[in-house]
Amino acid sequence: MRAMADKENCTRVTRLSKKRAAEAMAAPLQQQSKKRVVLGEITSGPNVGLSQISEQQKLKPRRAKRKVLKAVAEEGVTEKGKNEDRGIYIDAKSDDPQMCAAYVSEIYEYIRQMEKRRPLPDYIEKVQKDLSANMRGILVDWLIEVAEEYALLPDTLYLAVSYIDRFLSTNVLTRQKLQLLGVSSMLIASKYEEISPRNVEEFCYITDNTYTKDEVVEMEADVLKSLKFELGSPTIKTFLRRFTQVSQEDYKTAKLQLEFLGYYLAELSLLDYSCLKFLPSLVAAAVIFLSRFTLQPNLHPWNKALQQYSGYKPSSLKQCVLIIHDLQLSRRGGALIAIREKYKQHKFKCVSTLSSPPEIPDSYFEDVIA
After folding, report:
1. Which pTM value belongs to this model?
2. CA 124 and chain centroid, separation
3. Are 175 and 167 in contact (CB under 8 A)?
4. How confident is the model at residue 336 (pLDDT cuts 50, 70, 90)?
5. I want to staple 273 with a disulfide (CB 3.0 to 4.6 A). Which of 18, 133, 147, 321 is the partner?
6. By residue range, what is the domain housing residue 346?
7. Is 15 helix (H, G, I), strand (E, B) or coil?
8. Taking a C-beta distance cutoff of 8 angstroms, is the pair 356, 328 a contact?
9. pLDDT of 170-204, one tens digit each?
10. Are residues 103 and 135 located together in one domain of the fold?
11. CA 28, 30, 35: angle at the middle one, nearest 5?
């Protein structure tokens, strides 16, 4: 009996050992299944190991994608009317999903319609009594320093300036409250654009506590009411992204330098009150025109692709280009140096130190493009 009991105990121990061994082998698999998967790692296909997929199978989705893009591009070329005018060809060549190749044309058509939500181009003469264009320029120059100090997005700066101009188009303001309007507008734009917006106290601090928290919040409410909470207006930067991409298609020199030069000239245009009479899309097109002229002055700065995508001919850009050109050469706004100092940094390729010829040939503004 004792021998049988010993045998039974041995059998039980053996079973228990096997069970434990099986659990130990399964543990890594259970831990693997409990691993958190980020969005980028989620695939639409079955959970198959990479080692089980042949190289030919790996290439299939890529080839299919190229085939679809090629078909869309060919459609944009063959249909000379609607698709070519709406700019499908270059958009379809982009593999970047954020470029929204399938419906980017509709997006930009809608944005162009939203450009109507703009300030009065002559509000200082018609509405304001205590403000001047020079005061506005000083405020914008200071806000550029604020945006640089707090590492805010460029879109935040552009929106803040837009809110200031729209507010001043309908509300009379004294010069003592102009800086208050500036920080309140920057606060609103920061909340709209930034992932982690700055708080009210920081905007009070940046004014050396000239204004209290309650004053900033009160002005913030006034601005929002004046704008009717319509905060998503397109800016120069909105159009500059797309025009820069198109401009780089035939560009031979460093593309990053062209991009930073465009950003620099676009921010310079914010300083000049006279640029308010131009649509943001036109200013963005003028910036690309002048950027290309600065880097390659012997080549025509405009081409058919840019004309097609921007919707502007060289002749329609002339007045705006000449204003920004004067800003670039410090013939206008020379005392406002925040932008020039910002773009002297190596991270921006020192583009503010670049100089263009003092005169732009009149032939570059003719509508006939070879």
Report:
1. 0.71
2. 29
3. no
4. confident
5. 133
6. 236-365
7. helix
8. yes
9. 999 999 999 999 999 999 999 999 898 888 998 88
10. no
11. 95
- In a domain, residue 286? The reply is yes
Q: Which of 82, 94, 86 minimizes the C-alpha distance to 112?
A: 86
Q: How many domains does the chain have?
A: 3
Cα angle 126, 117, 109 (rounded to 5 degrees) comes to: 145
Contact between 280 and 238 (Cβ < 8 Å): yes
Cα torsion at 153, 158, 164, 168 (round to 10°)? -170
Residue 64's identity, in one-letter code, is: A
Instruction: Give 278-312 pLDDT, tens digit per residue.
Output: 999 999 999 999 999 998 898 888 888 888 888 88
Give the residue from 226, 245, 269 where a domain finishes. Answer: 226
Average pLDDT of the chain to the nearest whole number = 76
Paired tokens of 366 = 């003719």
Question: For residues 245 and 243, what is the distance between their CA atoms, to the nearest angstrom?
Answer: 5
Asked if residue 11 is part of any domain, the answer here is no
Q: Which of 262, 178, 161, 251 is nearest to 219 (CA)?
A: 178
| Residue 370 belongs to some domain of the structure | no
Residue 40 lies in a domain: no
